Amino acid sequence: MPAWLVLFPPLLVLIVALISRNVLLSLATGIVSAAALATSFSPVATVELIVCRLYRETDIQKIWCPLGSPDHFYTFVFLITLGIIISFITHSGGIAAYITTLQRRLHTKKATQFVCLLLSMCFFIDDYLSSLVVGSIMRPLTDKFALPRVKLAFLLNAMSAPLCVIIPASSWTAMILVNLQAAGVSEQPGLTTFIKADPFSVYLHTIAYLFYPFFIVASAFFIVARSISFGSMKAQEHEADRTGNLFGGKQPLVVQITQDPAHKGSLIDFFGPIGLFIGLVFALLLYSGNWHMLGGNATFGTALQQANIFFSLCFASVITLSLTLLIAALQKKLTLHNFKNISVSGFMLMKNSLFILLLAWTLSSLLKDDLKAGQYVAHLVLGAIPTFLLPVMIFFTALIIAASIGSAWGTIMIMMPLAVPIITAATGQSLPIDAQSAFLLGPIMGGLLSGAVAGGPVSPIADSTVMSSTSSGAYHLDHIATQFGYVTPAIAGTTLALLIVGLTGSYSPTLSVTGAFIAGLATTLLILYIRNKASN
To answer: CA-to-CA distance for 481 and 533, rounded, in angstroms?
Structure first.
């Protein structure tokens, strides 16, 4: 089989998605084609591999395994439970009371969008948590101001993963540190050590070079502040302003949940479950991270870094739902019939997302583990190229891999073992080298992490886009199409910034990264400004 065929399944997904506008069909087509390639087109083996991978991605087999964490299973439970919580808050009148209260203080669409961005900054601990909680809180309010669902989805996507990778106290931190150490970054010299340095210090050094995350966050604020609108996003905004349809003229996607007329509802009905859930998430994060105040031996910061976010989200949502329903039943605000309707409505809210996530994870697994598509792209792109081009080439390689396999974390796992030896080879010194000697360490690591984050918004199979479209209640493929033009300026600005640090980083790192940041950000915002002007 020709090696280039490993790129056929993700390409087929894009083609089918463009033709059919059906994300489930496109993902299923990609899974079948990837499995067929992995089994040399044997029909029986193809079916067996698909069934095996689908089952594996549910993580059911890990539930009773002490060595593994069923993260995907936890995610499914969390999504279903969160859907029921949202359904219950709507039914109890909590959302209506929340909207009424905020409408007295927020009088414009712009102010509402700023609140969405600022609220996202409070949930930097995890991208799933940020997208789903902020979207659930803001969606009823943005609906009142006729903000298209795809615009809300973009605001969520622009803030979730980028903030997680910028702030070194999120669920991403532990993953990055583990991969740095596995790739050969360690304070302890050894046969597998390429760079003698503390992985956390290397990560902190890299933050200044995370151009794409900084630029896309700045873009989101600039787009809201200047009322930037162009392309297919502008068409959806005009449709919403003209007709009130928030789905680009399509039928509403989210199941409509009605308030129980017997209950007027209050802010306690809204903030009670939401506050309880958020409090439990942080408590369980510290517990799973082995915080010393809860019987462990880790500091507060270390506990947050090594916590299990999926475990925390799952059990926090289950406990929140259980306590909320129990209190409502004791207050005679909930009957068995209402509970059944609320549960069905909550499941229907998340049903499509559950299927999309399962298929996206399955396709990602086939591409990453069976076809080794990421390694093929990496070796194809990272051939003999000039040293100053390495940061930008690493960036685009990571972006392509992330867009192809739909996983930022998977991309980092693939690219990190390739990037670290490239950094050391560029110095020409014997191993292990000191971090201070590796002038390309920051630019290449920054390019890698930036590319892994940037690949999500342009990929129909990325879990980050699934979460933002789920929380906003937007059509998934519309979300991808409308935000594409909004993220490409940040990609262009990042390219320029990485070229500058690649050319000048060896002379004066501080001046180099400062100049690159200013030039890249200015380019990003200028492109947005020009495109907005051209569309008016």
So the answer is: 20
